């Protein structure tokens, strides 16, 4: 299967650049999910997302982006809300109101020097389902944005707590910084650090013993990316990640990831 369930959607998007050095975007998204019997991780849902994004260059060396979104609707998730306080049998195929929130922001300083140095600060919040019995599902849904945009290794780790749904980022707060340079016009190097936290100390969709359920610190993310364009047709990439786990988990292993890639364009 290409996805976890049949999906249909409509997106309304508006962008305004009438304010000097500023772009203001707004959007309304509707997504309908319909589960397939052969796929146990799919669900039925009608989710609405309203959000906005502001990006600008307030001064010569500065750039920023700020984005927030709120979700509502109904979701029938066959995996249930697996928290210590709830009964698994009663939660099977339970349909609940969705009430979720996401936010991210980035501030960048461009040195505009010979090496094109850039320094950025980032922050992101994606709500997770609450332990208390609110009667609602607070898990933020990434809709069609599921991908390894934060980290390759964390994208693989996240499905363990979200019913095997790859890159379904949620229950996450991160704050970090990144630095990048371009030694030549064909070379770029970036280094990133993020501290990752779980907003709720319980995982959203699992009864696994891998989670301590009494701490919110997920761990660290250290990432380095080197890109090189050799010719018009040939380019390469090296991506390395090192992630010491925090006490949100019951084990203190370190996750590592390394990818070397050569790309030929015709």
* Count of beta strands: 12
Number of helices: 2
Approximately what portion of the residues adopt beta-strand conformation?
Answer: over 45%
H/E series, N to C?
EEEEHEEEHEEEEE
Over the alpha carbons, how many angstroms does the gyration radius reach? 20 Å
Nearest-integer average pLDDT: 90
Helical residues, percent: under 10%
* Major sheet characteristics: 12 strands, mixed
Low-confidence blocks of residues: 81-93
Distance, first to last CA: 29 Å
- The structure class reads mainly beta
Identify the overall geometry: globular
Q: Short description, anyone?
A:
Helices cover 4% and strands 54% of the residues. The chain is mainly beta and 266 residues long. Strand 3 and strand 4 form a beta hairpin.
Give a topology summary.
Blueprint: E1 6-16, E2 22-34, E3 43-59, E4 62-77, H1 88-91, E5 94-110, E6 118-126, E7 136-137, H2 152-157, E8 172-184, E9 187-197, E10 217-229, E11 234-244, E12 254-264
Parallel strand pairs: 5-7
Antiparallel strand pairs: 1-2, 2-3, 3-4, 4-5, 5-6, 6-8, 8-9, 9-10, 10-11, 11-12
